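protien #1 (seq + structre)
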Amino acid sequence: MQRVTFVRYTAKPGHADENERLSRAVFTELRAKQPAGIAYALCRNGDDFTHIFLNLAEDDSDVLTGLESFKAFSAEGPARHVAPPEVIRLSASVVEAYGFERTPALA
């Protein structure tokens, strides 16, 4: 089995840019460490955020949540969010995927 995780939440007014900055630090660390077998995406629409994580190697998220940048991002999360995030975690077999393999960094 593999891990598929979706996390959705709304940042408090005035905290969305800080949230994005802390999130982008996770991507910087991922690019530096280049862990194999994972895909991670951040989407933003105003103050609303969605994170999508795939671990194509195993059914856990430690490769992401163990990063120092992710710990820093998560530490003050509740203070930046309007309400607790909606989290969906699935143990599933990914049947097909497109675009996760070599998605260029978006500026």
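ok now protien #2
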Amino acid sequence: MTRCWWLVLACAATIPCQGQNLVANGGFADGSTPWFRAHKSAPGAIEIVPRDGEGFCAKLTSNGEWVDLMQPIELVPGGRYVFQYDLKRTAAGDDIRAMMIPRRAGGTDQYHSIGGSQTRLQQWQHFARVVRAPGKLESARVLLMNRLKGADAWFADLQVVPVSRTSAPGRDHSPKLDVPKVDAAPTIDGQLADGEWAQAGHITGFVRIKNGADPEAKTEAWVCHDGLRLLIAARCEEPLMAQGRFNSEGHDAGGVFADEVVEIFIDPDNDHETYYHFAISGRGADYDGSVGEGATEGAEFESGWTARAYKGPDFWSVEAAIPFGALETGAAGDIWGINICRERHVPAHAENTAWAATGTSFHTPAKFGDLVGLREAAQPKVVLEVLGVDQSTPGPASLSVRVDSRLPDATTVSIAADVASPVGEVVSRTTQTQLQPGASATVSLPFDIDERGSWQASVRCLDQSGSVLFAAPAQRFTVAPLLQARVVKPWYRGRIFSKMDLREVEIETRI
């Protein structure tokens, strides 16, 4: 049932902060309160209706006149904020959008708009941008508007959340964390040495994902980058260490999710749909996979990340370094979706906790938190293109790879290739080359073709310390059979030739 309302609500005072989301009732669960209209509109032009699948949204219908909702918010002068919301609409045009509007002292407004014409129709889409409040701030407000004739627009999950180097968990909003570049990267050994993560952004605690309640066992996390890698650490308090599950070992190990484990979900393009999934168990088993991101799906995705774990007397900890070059960051901006989560499997004390409460499952990208400040760091410094092999018959062959440098200086890099045969045998080859600033180079890696069928080549570029600068999507190539043949006539699908009284058949062959 819809809830319609027409009265203009007066609002003279600034709305106080509600948690860390400065927009009160941004999900419209409490109807229209405390939203009000800046322009008079026709009865029925604004409704609070159920959102597809979950919660509520504000539906604004326009006949060409202004239809809007507004709410004052309280900002800190000079502060940074992520302004975000979800939008569905029936027509394209800049006359449907949302704005965050700080007012400078003296009465001059700044307009920060998102969700104009760059949008899909009849589908929910997420929009977000970073806004800095002016130093001389008088007031601020958010505005939802539709003045596109004959169009419907649905607005949901309005949030304005501060960005800082320290973040508490998000119980009913999407928490934000500023991600600094560190002067010296921590040693990735799992041990969190004193002062090693002092420059990193700090997540002070996790909550239970289902209801946002405080957990029994506390977890903290740290995030930063060194220009090439996203660096993440977590410390998991465990008063019952002897009862914890620390069994799995190895890479992409099947039992990693049955152990005490930290999971990391990264949505670089912040589309709230596709993401990368990483996991480190308390014993050091690790997993990396992709859910719709990049060209490689599932556990076949290989990031070349470094992940280590350490067990103390009443805690366990993990450290990880994820190369930016292994992630698909072409559509990434300055806001990345992320969640850091923990599965605790201690008998009778099991709990799923995370930085951002996601409901019943970790795999809910619409409710991840956000990292801010990665746009420049995430741009690839080197780009690889697998050109192919020089022949497609058995015998000695060469895999050709083109390397494009975006580095400011001449640099020696390693090109490493893993070539998998049709029967699963993997041959690894590595060669070095010097890259000139802004230039390209082509390198060849020799190997032997000893099987016919489908082969796969996975290629990475590494700097002199072994860090991955770029990981190219896996490329397949086929070594054709020596002779291919098929029956052309007669062609009776499902018949058994021996029962057809055949006198002759026609066969097509290819060598």
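DSSP finds one helix and 34 strands in the chain.
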